[in-house]
Design brief:
Helix content of chain A is about 60%, strand content about 0%. By secondary structure, chain A is mostly helical. Chain A starts with 15 loop residues before the first helix and ends in a 34-residue tail after the last helix. Chain A binds a DNA duplex through helix 2 and helix 3.
Chain lengths: ~230, ~230
Amino acid sequence: MSATRDTINDKTRLSADAWAQAALDAIADQGIAGVAVEPLARRLGVTKGSFYWHFSNREALLKRALERWEEQETGVPFQSLENEPDPRRRLQRVIREVNTSLRTSRIYQALSAAADDPLIAAFVTRVSTRRIETLRQYYEAVGLSPDNASRWARLTYSVFLGTLQIRRDMPGEWPHTDSTEFSEYIAFLERALLPDDDAMNPDLAAPAHPGAALTGTLAANTATKS
Amino acid sequence: MSATRDTINDKTRLSADAWAQAALDAIADQGIAGVAVEPLARRLGVTKGSFYWHFSNREALLKRALERWEEQETGVPFQSLENEPDPRRRLQRVIREVNTSLRTSRIYQALSAAADDPLIAAFVTRVSTRRIETLRQYYEAVGLSPDNASRWARLTYSVFLGTLQIRRDMPGEWPHTDSTEFSEYIAFLERALLPDDDAMNPDLAAPAHPGAALTGTLAANTATKS
DNA sequence: TCCCATCCATACGGTAGCGTATTGACAGCG
DNA sequence: CGCTGTCAATACGCTACCGTATGGATGGGA
């Protein structure tokens, strides 16, 4: 799909990038198996002859498509939030954003599902690592120590990944997008994935510290024991 | 692998269950694509002739293997915790268990990666739905309303799924199993995924309520943290 | 205009797997 | 001993895809 070759009959020749984009589209709605030379050629209204002029083999196409994806994905879905001044609100917004939309995630899921291929795994790893790092910085910005920021970032990213999977494999478990239960759950996430104000300093900042108004260095841990 | 046909030369005939188990083994270490008649036959030291006597086609084998898996998976990894009396400790233990071991999860991941196949998707959905329901009951048992229990169960299960993915695709982001960072993160999870004592009653029970007075009902919170 | 680089079509051979048809081995039982 | 049912081997055709070889087509510059 997209703006490549929907109209079969235009006489424009194909570029390597057109093939790469077509491969990405195929990944989005058929998975990695969709990146097959002959089917792609049919879909583009040409034959293999074209493909093997632009690429040496299927692997090369896949690599190119992955590079294209990684490029497009850089900063997504965070880039629009860089100018949110309040770090706490920025985190809330990224949590909401990321667990709401599915737009960017279809390709990611297809790639992750094919992570047995070391080439694919490398790209998935890079993209995800960058995302986690971004989250980590956001958490540091609200006052967490580097260690705690890492933990929260890891937690939030696993919620994101797991939520994707739930929405795909168990749609019944996910509230309908415009229901009140949906917005309540998002609000719930915004709370569950943000550390307490009073839990900023302790070594193991935890979300639950009732009655721990004090902020010793690492004393707040046992402070809950009533 | 496993106890099926490692020794090529034993003259015992094969049963349909032997094929199903071999299929499961293949899923575990090659993914769904490993469920292929001829490769399996080679692995079992026989030929297709055997297979097509026991099964009508590949689909039938897959179905049988999935049934076998669902059966084995029923209750896992929760069954050993049913007799934990304290509901709060039971939740802590399941959180720890589930995010620690990878034993049971290889097949799950392979299946989930192939969830485009509707047959596979059906099994994955059933197993996961059951697991979420179990978690939901656990959360109800610590005093949450049904709605809140659902939310927490969903959250915890997505953390579990996402953690699996992180450990597979970004091993660098996951602390080494016997490091202190590892046990600290597990402790962190046990807190992040358990609601506050004082957050039991509010409609949207949240993990973060600094300064709220503690209710003494289930206050035996965290005796952990050596 | 002629030529050459660019891009594509056609035809071919090769591999891997599915499924079928037929034959073969073998054990238990009459 | 021979029959029969059970399980496996062999051989075959079929599909889908990868990659190669080679021969058009087409358009822009010398």
